[in-house]
Write a structure and sequence with these properties.
It is built from three helices and no strands. The mean pLDDT is 85. It is 67% helix and 0% strand.
């Protein structure tokens, strides 16, 4: 004789709401971080080639430099 057991997890509105707010918060955090990185790119692009060289950068490496920790490049 075979026995089957079912278990249904109870649904919690508080857990669902908490998850939704966490997702929304994560989205806004991502937007804010992307904006600050974009501002850094703009700031570095405004420097002269000589100023970039003093920082050890070349113009074509700015985006990679700013986003290197995000995309692991």
């Amino acid at each position: 004789m075979a026995h089957a057991a079912t278990h249904s997890a109870s649904w919690s509105p508080l857990a669902a709401l908490s998850g939704a707010f966490a997702a929304i918060g994560g989205f806004f955090t991502s937007v804010a971080m992307a904006n600050s990185r974009y501002q850094k790119v703009v700031e570095l692009q405004a420097l002269t080639d000589e100023q970039l060289a003093e920082r050890g950068l070349q113009r074509e490496d700015i985006v990679q430099h700013v986003f290197s920790d995000t995309y692991f490049i």
